[in-house]
Amino acid sequence: MFRFFAGIITAIAVIWSFQYFMGKSKQQEEIQLNSALLEQQIKQVGKLIVTEGQFSQVLSYKNTKKNYFDIFSANKKALVIVNAKVTIAYDLRQIKTEVDPEAKQVRILFLPEPEINIYPDLQYYDVSQDYFNKFDAADYNKIKGSVNKMVQAKIDQSDLKDDAKERLINELSKIYILTNSMGWSLQYQETTISSPSDLDNLKF
Question: By its UniProt entry, which Pfam families does this protein fall under (predicted)?
Answer without folding.
Answer: DUF4230
